[in-house]
């Protein structure tokens, strides 16, 4: 049974699906006004890893990931008619709809390049304004929200559990707002906007019972998660920076409207750091997958790098670390190519023991660093037949998502006529020397082959080669 760290309880808990055999999961997705960077992608990878482990374990998973195409407000207090979507549209000379379509397509392309499986549904915020208005109406009816001059606020003092996810109290939040711009329309400094009245310059606006306006950021996830997963579901994932205020507000909205707990387990991934800082456009330290490829790396090399760190820990990114990850993934592909066809079934106790170790690692709160250690232990264990090792690595890659089958095909040696001149004769002579146990001659011929850029590997199943 998969065990996950629940941010709500601060403990690692067994996942017990509300519906036996089936898991419902909501993952916070992108705001589509610019390309996602690899820090964003590490956050999205968390939901993919959970899903892969669950499916590998025999469960079905329904995953929903939102697309924020309405935009984040740059200033909740004074509406200047600008948000991130509109600023991007102005910069690129496109309409907000064109900006959203452009960067949503780029997000899907980048997710696929990183081996992230597609979610079952990608609801767009702009297509669910009606559900948001309905949910806001319920909050007003239940006394959790109030209207002031066309703007609807959530009254945090009406929700007893506010702050439980982030461990904030209302007194702490009141103190934290002292140095910020004051919205005198709020009853409590921590109250947040559910619906914002549109200013005269606001381009994207919608009709509502409270006048023309647009939804707050937090309400979209409450409305769409309930619409597609129901009033109770198992897992909600996102980056650690979303725990407050976004997910805290989401809990208040969903549970305030429905009167009961909606999400069982909240799972948050930590930041990707580059040059000692969180990767962010504002810091000028952004890497995209396009830049990564321009530097000579493959997207799945970055995925391997992510697997070397626990998801709840910060991951320090560097070009050197990425290059090392790429070499490791290439070596895995080469070994898989050496082993040939996988076994139909595991037979040896040693192979089964390795499988148990891998399973224990990934089920223990996604301990992929330990799983990678197990993987390399198996790779180097010549006591396990090559066919069994090939079978295990192929099966484990359903969880790892490293594309090792493609890496293995890329590592297959070219046809013999593509060998450098004289190399075929040297390979034949070396094989004869090995059969006669003339190890000195074998080593000498290896050196000659190496000078021709032919790398030779000796395994229990024979000798293989590849061009360097």
Concise account of the structure shown:
It is built from 16 helices and 15 strands. It has 468 residues and is of the alpha/beta class. Helix 6 packs across helix 7 and helix 11 runs antiparallel to helix 12.
**How many structural domains?**
3
The level 1 CATH classification of the largest domain is: Alpha Beta
* Main structural class: alpha/beta
Overall geometry comes to elongated
Radius of gyration: 27 Å
What is the helix tally? 16
**Low-pLDDT stretches:** 73-81
Calculate the mean pLDDT score and round it. 89
Tell me the strand order in the biggest sheet: 4-3-9-10
Report the major sheet: 4 strands, parallel
| Strand fraction | 15-25%
Level-2 CATH architecture of the largest domain? 3-Layer(aba) Sandwich
The percent range for helix content is: 40-55%
What does this protein look like?
- The protein is an alpha/beta fold and 468 residues long.
- It folds into three domains: 267 residues, 3-Layer(aba) Sandwich (Rossmann fold), CATH 3.40.50.620; 127 residues, Up-down Bundle (Four Helix Bundle (Hemerythrin (Met), subunit A)), CATH 1.20.120; 52 residues, no CATH class.
- 44% of the residues lie in helices and 15% in strands.
- It has 16 helices and 15 strands.
- The strands form five sheets. The protein has a four-stranded parallel beta sheet with strand order 4-3-9-10. The chain has a four-stranded antiparallel beta sheet with strand order 5-6-7-8. The chain has a three-stranded mixed beta sheet with strand order 12-11-13.
- The chain is elongated, with a radius of gyration of 27 Å.
